[in-house]
Amino acid sequence: MPRFYCPAPLQTGLALSLPPGAARHVQVLRMQPGDVITLFNGEGGEFDATVTRMGRSDVEVEVGVHHPIEREASRALHLLAGITANERMDWLVEKATELGVASITPLMAERSVLKLKGERADKKLAHWQGVAVAAAEQCGRNRVPVIHAAVTLSDWLKKAPLGQRWVLSLSEGTQPLSQMPTDGPVTVLSGPEGGLSPAEEASALAGGFAPVTLGARVLRAETAPLAVLAVCA
User: Fold this and answer.
1) What would the DSSP string read from start to end of 176-215?
2) pLDDT tens column, 78-118
């Protein structure tokens, strides 16, 4: 059954028009009045909904039964990821969403190829949030991870949330991922192509990040954080 994110109050018996993106998708699928879809608004569970009218540019539905289904990870995993080049960042957001990440904060690292500010940063943030929505629709999640505004590491550390902090590192003195605590929320810091600079890694360690290794092989910037999510989610 097709699934659509509908960021609006939902309740059984409610008649509403789908958001433009979802409406276009329903039209592309050539659905007809009487067809049933699934809606979720990120507040928990999902709803059956029946298409009642197909307009030229809008689609109306009637919300049906609520199903209190959750498909979230067993722990809250927050990703502080160095911004990678274009499609690689899209891929990271998509796969992290599928693997259950709770939130993603793009990190403007010293070695990030893509530099963001102003209107361009706003457009990228909206684009990545859209990628997360599409991934949640596809994989069955009923909660969409938040894509936070891009920050530098120093700015993030000034208002960092509570919880465990791990930094993926190739330096000496790291701990294997298998030896890290297995419960509670955790923020995972990973660098862009080329990794974090020595100064950034030093700041992370001073800010309470524990250095973690994924083994002897060097993983790509968009692969390493996904490996952590796959193991810990």
Assistant:
1) EGGGS--SS-EEEEE--TT---HHHHHHHHHTTPEEEE--
2) 999 999 987 899 999 999 999 999 999 999 999 988 777 78
The CA-based diameter of the chain, rounded to the nearest angstrom, is 62
Secondary element (H or E) of residue 90: helix 87-98
Tokens 């893509």: give the residue: 114
CB 92 within 8 A of CB 222: yes
Interval 146-190: pLDDT, tens: 999 999 999 999 988 778 999 999 988 899 999 999 899 999 999
Could you give the CA distance from residue 88 to residue 1 in angstroms, rounded to a whole number?
29
Tokens of 187: 């923020």
Q: How far apart are CA 103 and CA 126, in angstroms?
A: 14
CB 212 within 8 A of CB 174: yes
